[in-house]
Amino acid sequence: MKNIKIYILVVLVFTLSCDDKLNIEPRQVLDSDLVWVNEENLEAVLFGAYAGMKGTFGNNEGGEMYGGDYMVFSEMLAATDEVVWGGSFTAYREVFDKEITVTNTAISLNWIRAYDVINSVNNVLAHLDLAETDEKRDWIEGQALAIRGIMYFELLRFWAQPYGTGSEVSDPGVPLVLTPTITVEDADALMEQGRSTVAAGYQQVLDDLLEAKGLIDVSYGKNGTSISTYTVSAVLSRVYLQRGEFALAAQEADRVIQSGEYTLGDDPIKAFNNVSNGPEDVFTIQQTALSNSGTSNGGLATFYARLFGSGRGDVQVQATHFTNYETGDLRSGLQDDLSDEATAGTVTEMYYIGVGGQNSGQIQCAKYQDSERNIQIVRLPEMYLTRAEANFEAGTNVGATPLADINAIRNRAGLTDLTTVTIDEIRLERMRELAFEGHKLHDIKRWQMSVGSLPYDANELVLPIPQREIEIYDIPQNAGY
């Protein structure tokens, strides 16, 4: 936040409409008067923000965000007896134990990276006059606003009390930085405003996402590699669910489903570990040998996989987890016959007994087997589950009945139709389908359930503001730290 240069991180992680104009050295430090000169550089900074959302790319900077940490933080904070952290990384052990220190490196790096990304898009928004056409200006502005809204949504979900406590107008949220930070003085002035409230933070998220939704033309980004108008609707459905605005959540999820751009795959396991986007991918992190999130000791394959040449097997699934499933559910298959040389291509079930190195012999989730396979951030099944839950809570049938949506997900998993459905069955189906994809903590909080003996609003389930930020900017710390 205190750099007086603008950092451009240009990595071929996302497949945008790019060509040689984006062939810039992977990391550059440029004076601001050299950056803001044309549309190509404007797009390059936006592209760098995309790379920042993912996280590191084959080095040890940390702060994986959508490359892994956002999912791991959620699952480990929500962990009880269904999963164990068996790894040696202290930062993640603290999250699993719900005994987090204010100097936790992984948490600090994710906070810093989120604000780096926000600063990048704030700079983009301040230089939209460089866009050469109105159409391109709208696309760039929509992308930048969507990224900022998504970043603030994640910051609020992890570093503040959840929306729905009844005290949103007074609960501290996160600092809302909406203008570029170029100099030390800029950073000091912006951070001196302190933390917004949770209510104000969520309103900013909605303002950004709703504007972005209208700016991004439906013809852009439908392949799931960049933010499309349907990606924005998907994230809006998450925001509205958290706020308890069920009718609006159902409408946004229905918009994604009804777009016709995505279809449910024929087998749950086939949705994962792909090198290109599948039919149900609404938004996906594109992985390559350069950009992967496994070689940096901070990605999903690092933590979840335990195969020959892949992963550490840190996240170990326990037998208790399988009590959630019905007999014959394709999402609960356990493969126990892998050889010590088994690689990602040989795993055919959703769970397997790990082989090939440390932590072998433990149950691993097969959703993340290889650091060079894509990571799904939004999948179409989530939209069916969101529409079902939101319609049930609102007493509506937008797009379909809750029963029809739940049966669509069940059928794909090899299960028979239900004849009636309850809210508990809808929630259980969500937990089955989205297991280990980073939803668990947030679902528990909005359902106001407990994590073991901890209530949904326990201080231990909120990440601490990094000590660095407290010392530099005198930001108030979260309760309990």
Helix content: 40-55%
Tell me the number of structural domains: 1
Low-confidence stretches: 1-30
CATH T-level fold name: Serine Threonine Protein Phosphatase 5, Tetratricopeptide repeat
Q: What's the average pLDDT?
A: 88
- Termini separation comes to 23 Å
Beta-strand content: 5-15%
Radius of gyration: 21 Å
Largest sheet: 3 strands, mixed
- By secondary-structure content and strand pairing, the structural class works out as mainly alpha
Number of helices: 16
Strand order of the largest sheet: 6-7-8
Explain this structure to me?
- The protein has 481 residues and is mostly helical.
- The protein has one domain: Serine Threonine Protein Phosphatase 5, Tetratricopeptide repeat, CATH 1.25.40.390.
- 40% of the residues lie in helices and 7% in strands.
- The protein has a three-stranded mixed beta sheet, with no helix packed on it. A two-stranded antiparallel sheet has the order 1-2.
- Helix 2 packs antiparallel against helix 5, helix 6 packs antiparallel against helix 8 and helix 10 packs antiparallel against helix 12.
